[in-house]
Design a protein that fits this description.
The protein is an alpha+beta fold. The strands form 4 sheets. Strands 8-7-9-14-15 form a 5-stranded antiparallel sheet. Strands 1, 2, 4 and 5 form a 4-stranded antiparallel sheet that branches. Strands 3-12-11 form a 3-stranded antiparallel sheet, with no helix packed on it. It is built from 4 helices and 15 strands. It has a single domain, classed as Creatine Amidinohydrolase. The protein is globular and about 45 Å long. 26% of the residues lie in helices and 28% in strands. The structure holds magnesium ion. The site of magnesium ion (MG) has 5 residues, from loops.
Length: 238
């Protein structure tokens, strides 16, 4: 899983370098797929439940599961990219919301808070803590900042399957659910809206957008619980 995690991180860093005004999310999708072919690993999302692309590319008011397309991105946009792959039977899953060129300070704050809420969730993933301690840490961080947490989508266990038990909501009271134990591997993934928490699914059956058209951000890491605390697997030096 460290290897799968390192590879998903490398692909997102590869894409990051291409995210400038004028690029299309379909170009980024092709690039991610090409890298998978080069490594001889399988993209995890393509064909999953019928999802037709290698990456999920969700700009601006799109929350998750957006389809890559040929619309050039504009300066000041944000683009959430979620990407997973399978290496030697194990999954890695990782998401980052990237700024396109320069974004305004309110938008940057959304990215910062969402990233910070992921970090708070990871910090709460200690051996012998409770699963909902993660949920509570994420929610507190987001709502203290004045943003709202999406409830329709959750983090998840990950390993030999992309989505395993338990589900990890990004909200809830601490101290409930299963105890976290060394050896558990989890994908923690806060989705944060500037405005209302609500979600609408577009006619393609996949793309989740905010009900009020305001911005949304998404960060995700695959982590392992170790005796010494959480270890982030979806990173380059993993
Ligand atoms: Mg995930």
């Amino acid at each position: 899983m460290r290897r799968a995690g390192r590879m998903v991180a490398e692909v997102l860093m590869l894409l990051r370098d291409r995210i400038i005004p004028g690029v299309t999310s379909l170009e980024l999708d092709r690039l991610a797929e090409k890298q998978c072919r080069k490594w001889n690993v399988k993209p995890a999302f393509k064909g999953y439940g019928g999802f037709p692309f290698t990456i999920c590319a969700s700009p601006n008011e799109q929350i998750v599961h957006g389809f890559p397309n040929t619309n050039p991105l504009d300066e000041g946009d944000i683009l959430s990219i979620d990407f997973g792959l399978i290496s030697d039977g194990f999954y890695g899953d990782h998401a980052i919301t990237f700024p396109v060129g320069r974004v305004d300070s309110d938008t940057q704050r959304l990215l910062d808070v969402t990233h910070q809420s992921l970090q708070k969730g990871i910090d709460a993933a200690q051996p012998d803590s409770f699963l909902s301690d993660i949920s509570h840490a994420v929610q507190s961080c987001v709502e203290t900042a004045g943003f709202s947490v999406v409830r329709e989508f959750v983090g998840h266990g990950i390993g030999r399957q992309l989505h395993e038990d338990p589900q990890i909501p990004n909200y809830g009271s601490p101290g409930t659910g299963p105890r976290l134990r060394p050896g558990m591997t989890l994908a923690i993934e806060p989705m944060v809206n500037v405005g209302k928490a609500g979600v609408t699914i577009l006619d393609d059956g996949w793309t989740a957008v905010t009900v009020d058209g305001k911005l949304s951000a998404h960060f995700e890491h695959t982590i392992a619980i170790t005796e010494n605390g959480p270890e982030v697997l979806s990173r380059i030096d993993s």
